[in-house]
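Chain X:
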Amino acid sequence: GQRCPLYKASSKRELFVGNLPFTVRDEEQLTQWLRQLADFPLDECTVELATDPARDHKPKGFSFFKFDDHDSAVRAYSILAGRTWHNRTLAVRWATRSSRNEQVRIKDLMAQIKRLQAENYKLRLEKTESDLQVQRLQKQIPEAPIE
Protein backbone atom coordinates (compact mmCIF):
# COMPACT_ATOMS: atom_id res chain seq x y z
CA GLY A 1 0.00 0.00 0.00
CA GLN A 2 0.87 3.68 0.12
CA ARG A 3 1.35 6.11 2.96
CA CYS A 4 -1.81 7.83 4.03
CA PRO A 5 -1.82 11.56 3.31
CA LEU A 6 -2.27 13.63 6.43
CA TYR A 7 -5.75 14.91 6.89
CA LYS A 8 -6.52 18.14 8.73
CA ALA A 9 -9.07 16.56 11.05
CA SER A 10 -7.82 13.55 12.94
CA SER A 11 -11.46 12.61 13.48
CA LYS A 12 -11.91 11.40 9.89
CA ARG A 13 -13.09 7.79 9.97
CA GLU A 14 -14.56 7.16 6.52
CA LEU A 15 -12.87 6.23 3.24
CA PHE A 16 -14.12 6.35 -0.31
CA VAL A 17 -12.80 3.36 -2.30
CA GLY A 18 -13.39 3.57 -6.02
CA ASN A 19 -12.48 1.68 -9.18
CA LEU A 20 -13.69 -1.58 -7.69
CA PRO A 21 -14.04 -4.47 -10.14
CA PHE A 22 -17.60 -4.71 -11.45
CA THR A 23 -17.52 -8.39 -10.57
CA VAL A 24 -18.02 -7.29 -6.95
CA ARG A 25 -21.75 -7.80 -6.47
CA ASP A 26 -22.30 -7.27 -2.74
CA GLU A 27 -20.71 -6.27 0.57
CA GLU A 28 -20.09 -9.91 1.50
CA GLN A 29 -17.89 -10.49 -1.55
CA LEU A 30 -15.97 -7.29 -0.79
CA THR A 31 -15.61 -8.27 2.87
CA GLN A 32 -14.26 -11.73 1.91
CA TRP A 33 -11.55 -10.07 -0.18
CA LEU A 34 -10.68 -7.68 2.67
CA ARG A 35 -10.27 -10.65 5.03
CA GLN A 36 -7.40 -11.87 2.85
CA LEU A 37 -5.44 -8.65 3.34
CA ALA A 38 -2.94 -8.82 6.17
CA ASP A 39 -3.60 -6.39 9.03
CA PHE A 40 -6.74 -4.89 7.47
CA PRO A 41 -8.89 -3.61 10.38
CA LEU A 42 -12.05 -5.39 9.27
CA ASP A 43 -13.39 -5.78 12.80
CA GLU A 44 -13.50 -1.98 13.12
CA CYS A 45 -15.03 -1.44 9.66
CA THR A 46 -18.49 -1.15 8.13
CA VAL A 47 -18.59 -1.59 4.34
CA GLU A 48 -21.27 0.01 2.16
CA LEU A 49 -21.16 -0.91 -1.52
CA ALA A 50 -22.83 1.74 -3.71
CA THR A 51 -25.51 0.29 -5.99
CA ASP A 52 -27.87 1.73 -8.58
CA PRO A 53 -31.53 1.22 -7.60
CA ALA A 54 -32.65 2.11 -11.12
CA ARG A 55 -30.60 -0.76 -12.57
CA ASP A 56 -31.61 -3.67 -10.32
CA HIS A 57 -29.13 -2.50 -7.67
CA LYS A 58 -26.09 -3.22 -9.83
CA PRO A 59 -22.84 -2.08 -8.21
CA LYS A 60 -21.52 1.33 -9.21
CA GLY A 61 -17.86 0.41 -8.72
CA PHE A 62 -17.24 2.26 -5.47
CA SER A 63 -17.76 1.80 -1.77
CA PHE A 64 -17.60 3.65 1.54
CA PHE A 65 -15.69 2.15 4.45
CA LYS A 66 -16.54 3.56 7.89
CA PHE A 67 -14.20 2.80 10.78
CA ASP A 68 -14.60 2.90 14.55
CA ASP A 69 -11.63 5.23 14.90
CA HIS A 70 -9.27 7.40 12.88
CA ASP A 71 -6.23 5.15 13.42
CA SER A 72 -8.02 2.17 11.90
CA ALA A 73 -9.03 4.30 8.92
CA VAL A 74 -5.41 5.43 8.43
CA ARG A 75 -4.21 1.81 8.61
CA ALA A 76 -6.82 0.73 6.05
CA TYR A 77 -5.91 3.62 3.76
CA SER A 78 -2.28 2.56 3.81
CA ILE A 79 -3.22 -1.03 2.99
CA LEU A 80 -5.66 -0.22 0.16
CA ALA A 81 -4.12 2.79 -1.60
CA GLY A 82 -2.36 1.74 -4.79
CA ARG A 83 -3.48 -1.88 -4.45
CA THR A 84 -4.80 -3.65 -7.55
CA TRP A 85 -7.69 -6.08 -7.62
CA HIS A 86 -8.64 -7.87 -10.84
CA ASN A 87 -6.23 -5.61 -12.75
CA ARG A 88 -7.88 -2.44 -11.39
CA THR A 89 -5.96 0.00 -9.21
CA LEU A 90 -8.16 1.06 -6.33
CA ALA A 91 -8.83 4.78 -5.90
CA VAL A 92 -8.71 5.50 -2.17
CA ARG A 93 -9.37 8.87 -0.56
CA TRP A 94 -10.99 10.32 2.49
CA ALA A 95 -14.75 10.40 2.12
CA THR A 96 -16.16 13.89 2.23
CA ARG A 97 -19.60 15.25 2.79
CA SER A 98 -19.70 16.13 -0.91
CA SER A 99 -18.96 12.53 -1.95
CA ARG A 100 -21.81 11.35 0.29
CA ASN A 101 -24.11 14.14 -0.92
CA GLU A 102 -23.25 13.31 -4.52
CA GLN A 103 -24.20 9.67 -3.94
CA VAL A 104 -27.56 10.75 -2.46
CA ARG A 105 -28.11 13.22 -5.32
CA ILE A 106 -27.41 10.51 -7.91
CA LYS A 107 -29.82 8.10 -6.19
CA ASP A 108 -32.52 10.79 -6.20
CA LEU A 109 -31.93 11.57 -9.88
CA MET A 110 -32.07 7.89 -10.82
CA ALA A 111 -35.34 7.48 -8.91
CA GLN A 112 -36.79 10.51 -10.73
CA ILE A 113 -35.71 9.08 -14.09
CA LYS A 114 -37.28 5.72 -13.30
CA ARG A 115 -40.53 7.40 -12.23
CA LEU A 116 -40.63 9.53 -15.41
CA GLN A 117 -39.93 6.49 -17.58
CA ALA A 118 -42.87 4.69 -15.96
CA GLU A 119 -45.11 7.73 -16.52
CA ASN A 120 -44.01 7.96 -20.17
CA TYR A 121 -44.75 4.26 -20.68
CA LYS A 122 -48.21 4.71 -19.17
CA LEU A 123 -48.88 7.76 -21.38
CA ARG A 124 -47.79 5.84 -24.48
CA LEU A 125 -50.20 3.03 -23.61
CA GLU A 126 -53.01 5.53 -23.06
CA LYS A 127 -52.18 7.24 -26.38
CA THR A 128 -52.23 3.89 -28.17
CA GLU A 129 -55.64 3.09 -26.66
CA SER A 130 -56.88 6.55 -27.62
CA ASP A 131 -55.59 6.12 -31.19
CA LEU A 132 -57.41 2.79 -31.45
CA GLN A 133 -60.65 4.39 -30.25
CA VAL A 134 -60.29 7.13 -32.88
CA GLN A 135 -59.72 4.52 -35.58
CA ARG A 136 -62.81 2.55 -34.49
CA LEU A 137 -64.94 5.71 -34.56
CA GLN A 138 -63.57 6.71 -37.96
CA LYS A 139 -64.57 3.31 -39.37
CA GLN A 140 -68.16 4.03 -38.36
CA ILE A 141 -68.27 7.14 -40.53
CA PRO A 142 -69.65 6.38 -44.00
CA GLU A 143 -67.32 7.12 -46.88
CA ALA A 144 -69.94 8.95 -48.92
CA PRO A 145 -70.37 12.54 -47.82
CA ILE A 146 -73.58 13.35 -45.97
CA GLU A 147 -75.67 16.01 -47.75
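Chain Y:
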Amino acid sequence: DLGATGRLALMAKLAEGTGMKVPEQAAKALDVAEQNRANPAGNNANMPPIATQCFMLSNMFDPASESDPNWDLEIKEDVVEECNKHGGVNHIYVDKASSQGNVYVKCPSINCAVAAVNALHGRWFAGKVITAAYVPVVNYHNLFPDSANNNQLVQIRR
Protein backbone atom coordinates (compact mmCIF):
# COMPACT_ATOMS: atom_id res chain seq x y z
CA ASP A 1 0.00 0.00 0.00
CA LEU A 2 1.53 3.29 -1.12
CA GLY A 3 -0.54 5.52 1.15
CA ALA A 4 -1.93 8.89 0.09
CA THR A 5 1.43 10.61 -0.35
CA GLY A 6 2.88 7.66 -2.23
CA ARG A 7 -0.06 7.66 -4.65
CA LEU A 8 0.38 11.40 -5.22
CA ALA A 9 4.11 10.99 -5.83
CA LEU A 10 3.44 8.15 -8.28
CA MET A 11 0.85 10.20 -10.19
CA ALA A 12 3.24 13.18 -10.36
CA LYS A 13 6.07 10.95 -11.61
CA LEU A 14 3.81 9.40 -14.27
CA ALA A 15 2.69 12.88 -15.39
CA GLU A 16 6.30 14.06 -15.94
CA GLY A 17 7.09 14.58 -19.60
CA THR A 18 3.50 13.97 -20.76
CA GLY A 19 2.43 17.60 -20.70
CA MET A 20 -0.15 16.81 -18.01
CA LYS A 21 -0.23 19.29 -15.17
CA VAL A 22 -0.34 17.99 -11.62
CA PRO A 23 -3.30 19.67 -9.84
CA GLU A 24 -2.22 22.57 -7.61
CA GLN A 25 -3.54 20.99 -4.39
CA ALA A 26 -1.77 17.72 -5.16
CA ALA A 27 1.51 19.57 -5.77
CA LYS A 28 1.11 21.43 -2.46
CA ALA A 29 0.47 18.16 -0.62
CA LEU A 30 3.61 16.66 -2.15
CA ASP A 31 5.64 19.76 -1.22
CA VAL A 32 4.50 19.54 2.42
CA ALA A 33 5.27 15.80 2.54
CA GLU A 34 8.74 16.44 1.08
CA GLN A 35 9.43 19.23 3.59
CA ASN A 36 8.36 16.96 6.45
CA ARG A 37 10.69 14.20 5.23
CA ALA A 38 13.60 16.62 4.79
CA ASN A 39 13.09 18.31 8.16
CA PRO A 40 11.30 15.87 10.50
CA ALA A 41 12.28 17.79 13.64
CA GLY A 42 11.46 21.14 12.03
CA ASN A 43 9.31 23.93 13.36
CA ASN A 44 5.68 23.64 14.40
CA ALA A 45 4.43 24.96 11.04
CA ASN A 46 5.28 21.59 9.49
CA MET A 47 4.02 19.45 12.35
CA PRO A 48 1.46 16.82 11.34
CA PRO A 49 -2.11 17.70 12.28
CA ILE A 50 -3.60 16.38 15.49
CA ALA A 51 -6.13 13.70 14.62
CA THR A 52 -9.72 14.09 15.80
CA GLN A 53 -12.86 12.14 14.98
CA CYS A 54 -13.95 15.00 12.68
CA PHE A 55 -12.53 15.96 9.30
CA MET A 56 -13.25 17.95 6.17
CA LEU A 57 -12.85 16.63 2.65
CA SER A 58 -12.13 19.27 0.00
CA ASN A 59 -12.22 19.12 -3.79
CA MET A 60 -15.13 16.65 -3.76
CA PHE A 61 -17.27 18.60 -6.24
CA ASP A 62 -17.77 21.85 -8.12
CA PRO A 63 -21.23 23.23 -7.31
CA ALA A 64 -21.26 25.25 -10.55
CA SER A 65 -21.00 22.10 -12.67
CA GLU A 66 -23.47 19.89 -10.76
CA SER A 67 -26.78 19.46 -12.59
CA ASP A 68 -28.48 16.44 -11.00
CA PRO A 69 -31.03 17.64 -8.41
CA ASN A 70 -29.79 15.03 -5.87
CA TRP A 71 -26.06 15.37 -6.54
CA ASP A 72 -25.35 16.14 -2.89
CA LEU A 73 -27.04 12.91 -1.76
CA GLU A 74 -24.89 10.91 -4.18
CA ILE A 75 -21.72 12.45 -2.75
CA LYS A 76 -22.96 11.85 0.80
CA GLU A 77 -23.65 8.18 0.00
CA ASP A 78 -20.25 7.74 -1.67
CA VAL A 79 -18.43 9.20 1.36
CA VAL A 80 -20.48 7.18 3.87
CA GLU A 81 -19.91 4.00 1.85
CA GLU A 82 -16.14 4.56 1.90
CA CYS A 83 -16.09 5.51 5.60
CA ASN A 84 -18.14 2.41 6.46
CA LYS A 85 -15.07 0.38 5.50
CA HIS A 86 -13.26 2.09 8.38
CA GLY A 87 -15.90 2.21 11.13
CA GLY A 88 -18.76 4.37 9.88
CA VAL A 89 -20.03 7.93 10.14
CA ASN A 90 -22.02 9.65 12.90
CA HIS A 91 -22.63 12.88 10.96
CA ILE A 92 -22.02 14.16 7.44
CA TYR A 93 -22.71 17.47 5.76
CA VAL A 94 -22.20 18.24 2.07
CA ASP A 95 -21.70 22.01 1.84
CA LYS A 96 -23.49 22.58 -1.48
CA ALA A 97 -22.51 26.27 -1.49
CA SER A 98 -18.79 25.59 -1.01
CA SER A 99 -16.68 26.58 -4.00
CA GLN A 100 -13.95 24.27 -2.59
CA GLY A 101 -16.29 21.25 -2.68
CA ASN A 102 -16.24 20.66 1.09
CA VAL A 103 -17.80 17.69 2.85
CA TYR A 104 -17.70 17.56 6.67
CA VAL A 105 -17.58 14.17 8.41
CA LYS A 106 -17.70 13.01 12.03
CA CYS A 107 -16.73 9.41 12.76
CA PRO A 108 -17.51 7.39 15.90
CA SER A 109 -13.85 7.37 17.00
CA ILE A 110 -10.48 8.92 16.25
CA ASN A 111 -9.22 5.56 14.93
CA CYS A 112 -12.09 5.39 12.43
CA ALA A 113 -11.41 8.97 11.31
CA VAL A 114 -7.67 8.36 10.91
CA ALA A 115 -8.34 5.26 8.79
CA ALA A 116 -10.87 7.15 6.64
CA VAL A 117 -8.60 10.20 6.21
CA ASN A 118 -5.67 7.96 5.25
CA ALA A 119 -7.84 6.19 2.67
CA LEU A 120 -9.37 9.36 1.19
CA HIS A 121 -6.59 11.98 1.29
CA GLY A 122 -4.87 12.08 -2.08
CA ARG A 123 -7.44 9.86 -3.77
CA TRP A 124 -8.93 10.88 -7.12
CA PHE A 125 -12.68 11.51 -7.14
CA ALA A 126 -14.62 12.90 -10.12
CA GLY A 127 -11.36 13.93 -11.78
CA LYS A 128 -10.01 15.82 -8.76
CA VAL A 129 -7.58 14.99 -5.96
CA ILE A 130 -9.33 14.91 -2.58
CA THR A 131 -7.67 16.60 0.38
CA ALA A 132 -8.64 15.72 3.93
CA ALA A 133 -8.02 17.85 7.01
CA TYR A 134 -8.90 17.19 10.62
CA VAL A 135 -11.33 19.58 12.30
CA PRO A 136 -11.21 20.11 16.08
CA VAL A 137 -14.29 18.53 17.68
CA VAL A 138 -15.27 21.81 19.39
CA ASN A 139 -15.21 23.63 16.05
CA TYR A 140 -17.19 20.84 14.39
CA HIS A 141 -19.86 20.96 17.11
CA ASN A 142 -20.03 24.76 16.75
CA LEU A 143 -20.65 24.33 13.01
CA PHE A 144 -23.09 21.43 13.47
CA PRO A 145 -24.66 21.52 16.97
CA ASP A 146 -26.90 18.55 16.18
CA SER A 147 -23.77 16.37 15.77
CA ALA A 148 -22.66 16.82 19.40
CA ASN A 149 -24.99 14.20 20.89
CA ASN A 150 -25.51 11.98 17.85
CA ASN A 151 -24.08 8.50 18.37
CA GLN A 152 -26.12 6.81 15.62
CA LEU A 153 -24.32 5.67 12.48
CA VAL A 154 -25.48 7.25 9.23
CA GLN A 155 -27.22 4.69 7.01
CA ILE A 156 -27.24 4.82 3.22
CA ARG A 157 -29.96 3.58 0.90
CA ARG A 158 -28.15 1.54 -1.74
